Amino acid sequence: MAQQPSRNQSDEMNSESIESLWRQALLIRDFARDEVDATRRRRADAEQARQQAEQDSIRATEELCEDIRAEAQSDLEDAKRTLETARELQIQAEAELDAARSIKQQAEADSARIQADAHDAAATNIEAARSASLRTEPISSECPMIFGAWPDASSRRNAFSRFNRTRSIALSMTTLS
Predict the structure, then answer these.
(1) What is the pLDDT of residues 20-71, one digit of tens each?
(2) Which residues 6+ apart lie within 8 Å of 136 measured at CB?
(3) What is the DSSP letter of 174?
(4) Which residues does 140 contact at the CB level (< 8 Å), separation at least 6?
(5) What's the sign of the alpha-carbon dihedral 76, 81, 82, 84?
(6) Cα distance between residue 65 and residue 72, in whole Å
(7) Domain containing 42: what range?
(8) Is the dihedral of CA 84, 89, 92, 93 positive or negative?
(9) Residue 116: in which H helix or E strand, if any?
(10) CA–CA–CA angle 144, 150, 153 (5° rounding)
């Protein structure tokens, strides 16, 4: 019988031990559940933070792309305006160049005509002067000073007066042309 109480003690001890183990298991289970729940909450929070960061990143990228697109559109419009201005300036420059070429051609034609008229007038004047000089005495008799001394003062006056008449005739013919 002595063994029985020890068995009872042992059963009691075993029962207490089992109960203690059961309580510990329940505590560990509760603790594990709490840890699993906390881990799940942390994981859900982390997932939500990741999704929020992803959405923020996408939104920031979209805003940046929109800003870049708007700036590129503005630059494109500026380039189109500049190109249009350049085209207008080119058309204007080409028109001015055509006008300048036309003026140059007209000036060259006028110059050629004026030169031809002047040449013809000069030829006419030269011919008139030759004709007038042929009607008077040769220059060597009119201006003996060139070839020697005057024989007397009246010869010199007569020669100068004939020379001045010839010269005035020639000059009047050039002014008439």
Answers:
(1) 888 888 888 878 788 888 888 999 999 999 999 999 999 999 999 999 999 9
(2) 142, 162, 165, 166
(3) H
(4) 146, 147
(5) positive
(6) 10
(7) 11-116
(8) negative
(9) helix 3-135
(10) 130
For 177, half-sphere exposure in the C-beta direction (CA atoms, 13 angstrom radius) is: 18
**Distance, CA of 92 to CA of 95 (rounded, Å):** 5
Is residue 144 situated within a structural domain? Answer: no
Residue whose entry in the numeric block shows the structure tokens 């030169």 = 115
Domain total for the chain?
Answer: 1
Q: What is the three-class DSSP state of 151?
A: coil
Helix axes 3-135, 153-176, angle to 10 degrees: 130
Q: What's the Cα-to-Cα distance from 13 to each of 17, 21, 39, rounded to whole Å? A: 6, 12, 37
Considering the domain boundaries, does residue 52 fall inside one? yes
Q: What is the DSSP letter of 136?
A: S
| Structural domain contains residue 31 | yes
Structure tokens at 14: 């075993």
DSSP, collapsed to helix, strand or coil, labels residue 177 as coil
pTM score: 0.41
Give the alpha-carbon dihedral of 62, 63, 69, 74, to 10 degrees: 170
The single-letter code of the amino acid at 81 is R
